[in-house]
Amino acid sequence: MNEAEDPIAATPRKPSMPVNDGLRDYLARYKRERVLPVTYERLRDFQEVIPLVDANGQPTLWDTVIYRYDEMGDLYEGLKRIYALLKVDGDFSVMQHLYVDRVDYCSFGNSTPFRVRVVNAYNDNQDYFYVKKADASRVYGLELEHLLSPNRLNYLTHGTTLVEEHIAGIPGDVFIQKWMQYPELRPVRVAKELVKFNERCFVRLLGDMRSYNFVFVITPDFEAAQVRIRAMDFDQQSYNGRKNFYLPQFFKDNTPLVHYCNKHLHAQTALQYQREEQTLMVQRADLARARLDSLLHEMAGDPIAPLEKVHTLRVALAEHFQRDEYLECESMGALVRQNLATLREVIASHHPAEPNE
Known about the structure:
By secondary structure, the chain is an alpha+beta fold. The chain is built from eleven helices and ten strands.
């Protein structure tokens, strides 16, 4: 993996893009658009905030919010029902033993989310979900992650409200500080997943994957632990015009991970893992062909990025892949579709010729 010659500068705040009628029809067709008992705007009507600290007493980016006493019961009941919709398609009968313990608010970042903590009254087990202002770019990012990555995502929309499940894992910046030299992790497995994650982001044009925007999921196995990297922030889906913005390896925050890969992977092995992920992405795309075609059709007609950014990016991609077809693309959706078409051609060119019958 290569590093950037110059670190990519801080990302400016991206404007929120409305969910248009075509995308909303798509969401309704696949049961993402549901009637929700609590909206993002309703959660914004809080009365007090209390700074939230971590287990060591250090301040976090979150504040716990307090609502009026006379509306708290109805509000929390509505949040429980949203959790039931997210987890068991609304079957509230199996979730009556849950309660909402806390609602937190974060003013940092594009989505200014609310985080709802749900607790099981029988065993004190905790889970979270997020309520955000709906943004078309983020919705496209969530859906592309669901269709093209090895991960499945639960999320719901309703008007200008977006609800997302919690993505559990070790944040990338914490992994770098505390886990990278953990003896139970095999360095090659970590490096392999870094290569695959880098490739997934690039093909589906998910940008701004700095270390704090993705998590490491570690699963114990009979021979050491397995590792998977999952994106957890989709605000910068197909918005930026810089090619390197879609390659996590070029962010200064990720430099220790790049050095880690270079130390533990031979260049030919890295190329093998890159090709493996390309093949898997094409297979996932083929399995969800009708749904993906519908999504990319809506995305191609949606101005989620200024045209000048599309034109800048298409030139860089055409040069990177040595394919003039990119120069005909007039939208971010068209560029994602062309990336997938390019992968198919690359994979086909490396397959041995079929023997004649």
